[in-house]
Specification:
CATH superfamily of one domain: MetI-like
Oligomer: single chain
Strand content: under 5%
CATH topology of one domain: MetI-like fold
Number of strands: 0
Helix content: over 70%
CATH class of one domain: Mainly Alpha
Number of helices: 15
């Protein structure tokens, strides 16, 4: 009798192992499996369509002026050249301020805003998720309400605040207006809500305080969401021209996107089309590189955002 039971158990294990390997091959195979062919058939055409704008931006930046205005227009360049980038460098040298200065300003502001924005968003999300305090629901509702506002709608009150603080024409005028990110607070709170409360309770029993729970338990478990917020913040700050337009007067403090956008302002569009194409590529590439580096974390964010 025990032998029959043992044989039945082994038979059941073999059957379950076959099912697991089959479904594993279908759902998340480690290598290529024939079940993936249907996904390639669907995704490859979509991938090609999604890649066309990126390819066009890169191709246009290396087109000579005669190809930029050729008719019928050509998608790919036939005679790639670096003249557009040389012309861009010559245009910056005529202003008396090197291109590197604008790049330095953009990098400095972007790094500081990303670090501070991630810290503020994570602390706010932690407070909304785990702490109890008066006005918690009202403040979180206000954060949700703030998501609906666009930058133009709050431009005037934001300018009044910056002017009242006396930080116009300084680096702080680039940083402070971009720190708040309601979407980041909302997304991080949803991630923190998924962390089992038992982990915090066990840490409290072991003598951990709230800061240790935040740094040693919460932050390591929300890395995918932090990476996603970092990308969103980077795009917002790196491509930003509002602060240079509204709050900055001195040219050496302005950022790269503002300067590159001003190259074609008030000049012949024909003469500066190549410069504009090169400038667009310079501004676009960091966004693409950062996404490629953090794409795994972004995909994890999308996968976990639906788990309740």
């Amino acid at each position: 009798m025990p032998r029959k039971v043992d044989q039945a158990i082994r038979k059941g294990l073999r059957k379950n192992r076959k099912k697991a390997s089959y479904f594993g091959a279908m759902i998340d195979p480690k290598g290529f499996h024939r079940s993936q062919i249907k996904f390639y058939v669907i995704l490859l055409p979509i991938l090609i369509i999604m890649m066309l704008p990126i390819i066009y931006i890169i191709s246009t930046a290396f087109k000579p002026i005669n190809e930029l205005y050729a008719y019928p227009p050509k998608f790919f360049t036939r005679q790639p050249t670096l003249q557009n980038f040389i012309s861009l460098n010559e245009a910056t040298s005529q202003t008396g301020i090197a291109l590197g200065r604008y790049i330095f300003n953009s990098i400095l502001v972007t790094v500081i805003v990303i670090i501070l924005s991630l810290l503020m968003s994570a602390l706010a999300a932690f407070a909304f998720s785990y702490l109890e305090f008066r006005g918690k629901k009202f403040l979180f509702a206000a954060n949700q309400f703030a998501i609906m506002f666009i930058a133009v709608a709050v431009a005037v009150p934001r300018f009044m605040v910056i002017s009242g603080l006396g930080i116009t024409n300084t680096y702080l005028a680039h940083i402070i207006p971009l720190l708040a990110m309601p979407v980041g607070v909302f997304l991080l709170k949803q991630f923190i809500d998924q962390i089992p409360r038992e982990l915090n309770e066990a840490a409290i029993i072991d003598g951990a305080n709230k800061w240790q729970i935040f740094t040693r338990i919460t932050l390591p478990n929300i890395k995918p969401a932090l990476s996603t917020i970092a990308i969103l913040t980077f795009q917002q700050v790196w491509n930003n021209t509002e602060t240079s337009n509204l709050y900055i007067v001195d040219e050496p403090i302005k950022t790269l996107p503002y300067y590159l956008g001003s190259l074609t302002f008030g000049t012949s569009s024909i003469a500066t089309q190549g410069i504009s194409a090169a400038a667009s590529l310079i501004v676009f590439l960091p966004n693409l590189i950062l996404f490629i580096i953090l794409q795994k974390q972004v995909m994890n964010t999308m996968a976990h955002s639906g788990i309740k």
